[in-house]
Amino acid sequence: MAGLELLHRSVAESLSCPQDALLCYLHWRLISHGYRCLGAGDQPDPNERKSELLPTGWNADKDLYTLRYQSKDDSQELLLKGVMVDGSIIINVMDLGSQKVVDLTLNVADYVDAEHLTDFEKVYKNSEELQAKIVSDIISPFGAPKERVTPKEEPKPEKKVPPATSRDYDPLRIPPRHPYGGRQPDWSDPMGPFAVGGEDLDPFGGRRGGMILDPLRSGVPHPIIDPSSGLPNRLPPGAVPPGARFDPFGPPGFIPGRPNPDHLPPPGYDDMFM
């Protein structure tokens, strides 16, 4: 019964009759189920505030107890009245919002020892039975008040930043364009004995080697184009940046990158009568 002993000690000096101790126990059960006391009496006080303690003057009238409670989420406000009749107390509780009313009658002597009102270890009797009656007949009919929940903010998705490289990342930089869908072809060994006809046999398998020999990849070294070809003097160093597209000023002595017209002559090309 956590909290009941502290509550009893806070009001022990003002307990003058058994029904005072019984109301103290009832107050503790309401507090432990999420209610807070607003004050004593039927009318609200402008300066009142919700508290776990019993208000001043709560037991001024030993025959009629009047207390007001409110749930933590402010959804319920209860008006509690306890009336003494021939050694029994009739507890009447009304929800001011729904006008729902519940009541409970208790024989005070069955649950409170009148000779030990200030001794917490001896003042209450049959505590489990008393607690069960209060919960089932008073608290449960109104339902447990809901805790006020603060909505949680959903975490914002983290922005993915590309890993740092030797070059600074620039989102506006256009990536270089490459043929073959951004990948370089994997040229197999042109001199391989099984490379010829590979693409014709398996066009989707990524193999290399067609029926016609590619002179650019025949394994023969190609001469370097001289950009000064056709000029009386040579161009100064750096005049043509490396990798730049550049047409020589004059016709070179050969046309690189093109097959020899006589590479695949037709049958009987040297027959003068054809």
From TrEMBL:
<dbReference type="GO" id="GO:0042803">
    <property type="term" value="F:protein homodimerization activity"/>
</dbReference>
<keyword id="KW-0256">Endoplasmic reticulum</keyword>
<feature type="region of interest" description="Disordered">
    <location>
        <begin position="144"/>
        <end position="187"/>
    </location>
</feature>
<dbReference type="GO" id="GO:0070628">
    <property type="term" value="F:proteasome binding"/>
</dbReference>
<dbReference type="GO" id="GO:0005783">
    <property type="term" value="C:endoplasmic reticulum"/>
</dbReference>
<keyword id="KW-0963">Cytoplasm</keyword>
<feature type="compositionally biased region" description="Pro residues">
    <location>
        <begin position="249"/>
        <end position="268"/>
    </location>
</feature>
<dbReference type="Pfam" id="PF11566">
    <property type="entry name" value="PI31_Prot_N"/>
</dbReference>
<dbReference type="InterPro" id="IPR045128">
    <property type="entry name" value="PI31-like"/>
</dbReference>
<dbReference type="GO" id="GO:0043161">
    <property type="term" value="P:proteasome-mediated ubiquitin-dependent protein catabolic process"/>
</dbReference>
<dbReference type="GO" id="GO:0005829">
    <property type="term" value="C:cytosol"/>
</dbReference>
<keyword id="KW-0488">Methylation</keyword>
<dbReference type="GO" id="GO:0000502">
    <property type="term" value="C:proteasome complex"/>
</dbReference>
<comment type="similarity">
    <text>Belongs to the proteasome inhibitor PI31 family.</text>
</comment>
<dbReference type="GO" id="GO:1901799">
    <property type="term" value="P:negative regulation of proteasomal protein catabolic process"/>
</dbReference>
<keyword id="KW-0597">Phosphoprotein</keyword>
<comment type="function">
    <text>Plays an important role in control of proteasome function. Inhibits the hydrolysis of protein and peptide substrates by the 20S proteasome. Also inhibits the activation of the proteasome by the proteasome regulatory proteins PA700 and PA28.</text>
</comment>
<keyword id="KW-0647">Proteasome</keyword>
<feature type="compositionally biased region" description="Basic and acidic residues">
    <location>
        <begin position="145"/>
        <end position="171"/>
    </location>
</feature>
<dbReference type="GO" id="GO:0004866">
    <property type="term" value="F:endopeptidase inhibitor activity"/>
</dbReference>
<dbReference type="InterPro" id="IPR021625">
    <property type="entry name" value="PI31_Prot_N"/>
</dbReference>
<dbReference type="GO" id="GO:0046982">
    <property type="term" value="F:protein heterodimerization activity"/>
</dbReference>
<feature type="domain" description="PI31 proteasome regulator N-terminal">
    <location>
        <begin position="13"/>
        <end position="142"/>
    </location>
</feature>
<protein>
    <recommendedName>
        <fullName>Proteasome inhibitor PI31 subunit</fullName>
    </recommendedName>
</protein>
<dbReference type="GO" id="GO:0048471">
    <property type="term" value="C:perinuclear region of cytoplasm"/>
</dbReference>
<keyword id="KW-0007">Acetylation</keyword>
<feature type="region of interest" description="Disordered">
    <location>
        <begin position="227"/>
        <end position="274"/>
    </location>
</feature>
